[in-house]
Amino acid sequence: MSKKLFSLILLLSLIFQSISRRNLLEETTEKENEKETEKETQQQTEEEDSCEQTKEESIDFSKIPDYKIRKENLPHSQVLMPIRRIGTSNMEMGEGPCGGVEKKPANTLTNKGSSINVVWEILVPENKGNCTVKLSSGKQDEESFKLLQPTEGKINEDGSFACGRDKGFEHKEFILPPDYECDGCTLQWKWRTEYGDIYSCSDIIINGGSLTNCMGKCLNGGSCFNGKCLCAKGFVGDFCESKEGEYSLTWLWVLICLAILAGAGFLIYKYREEIKVCFDKGVTWVTSSGRSNLVDFEEKKNNNDNPFGGDIVDSSKQS
After folding, report:
1. What distance lies between CA 268 and its chain's CA centroid?
2. Paired residues of 204 in beta bridges
3. What is the pLDDT of residues 35-58, one digit of tens each?
4. Distance (Å, whole) CA 78 – CA 97
5. Complete DSSP assignment for the chain
6. Rounded Cα gap, residues 114 and 148, in angstroms
7. Cα–Cα distance between 176 and 187 in angstroms, integer?
8. CATH class of 74-207
9. Residue 193 contacts residue 128 (beta carbons within 8 Å)
């Protein structure tokens, strides 16, 4: 009886120890998970802070009067009409002519000489902001853009006008040049602020009669303008189909062929009398090898020495 009781007590003791160890293991695992979670949260926060700091470092705060200004308070805007290029930033202080955004296929259609409305929204205003609107034939360099003036409102000496000084929607109407017809013109909206310039570009089609010559036919980034293709840098040809080096090589071969033809024409002209005599007599020297040459029939008939080893045949007497 005592042995059974001892065995039972020993068994209960082992079970109690097992339960205690299990609880201790669970508590330890839970604490480790909490520490790991806290560590991951801290790393994520540090990464977000580092990313935010990197973005803020891209802005030259030395040009900002208030060094404590936060990014959320920098000027924000977005052009609504014409449709802006995909990838255009609402607030990045970029470089011209389009803030680094590449040219896209045109998605707005209008007619030459007509008016066009430009609509934009100011999300964070700038009390000294001024805007300009320019139009390019399709080339993406600042020199190619032509200044457009609004149909109403006060205009500064440099062609700019006050804008973006209050939060909300703004718009201006502009008259397109009468001599612009293109399938990929670029309309540039620029907002000048104390902190830098914000660019937004829209690609438009200005319809006209001359577009039928090249609309949609210009290759390698070229655009149709007034009936001719304006090629991107590094490309040439009627439809911008060749690189500059390849096009030069093609013209070289054309010049060589023309030189050969000119030389052949000169020789024919120089010996035209001899050639005319041969063709007028209609005489052929026929050899056994099948070789034939135009010759003077009377001269060869009286000459017994046949250098070709063949027969003399008067082709004018053959049927």
Report:
1. 52
2. 108, 185
3. 777 777 777 767 666 655 554 455
4. 16
5. -HHHHHHHHHHHHHHHHHHHHHHHHHHHHHHHHHHHHHHHHHHHHHHHHHHHHHHHHTS-GGG-S-TT--GGGS-EEEEEESPPPTT--SS----TTTTTPPP----EEEETT-EEEEEEEEEE--TT-EEEEEEESS--SGGGEEEE-BSSS---TTS-EE-SSSSEEEEEEEEPPTT--EEEEEEEEEEEETTEEEEEEEEEEEE-GGGGGTTTT--TT-EEETTEEEPPTTEESTTS-EEHHHHHHHHHHHHHHHHHHHHHHHHHHHTHHHHHHHHHHT-EEE-TTS-EEE--HHHHHT----TTS--EE-GGG--
6. 13
7. 10
8. mainly beta
9. yes
Half-sphere exposure of 118 (CA within 13 A, CB side): 29
Task: List the chain domain ranges.
Answer: 17-58, 74-207, 272-317
Binned at pLDDT 50, 70 and 90, residue 319 comes out as very low
With beta carbons less than 8 A apart as the criterion, state whether 257 and 279 touch. no
213-246 tens-digit pLDDT? 888 888 888 889 999 998 888 888 889 888 876 6
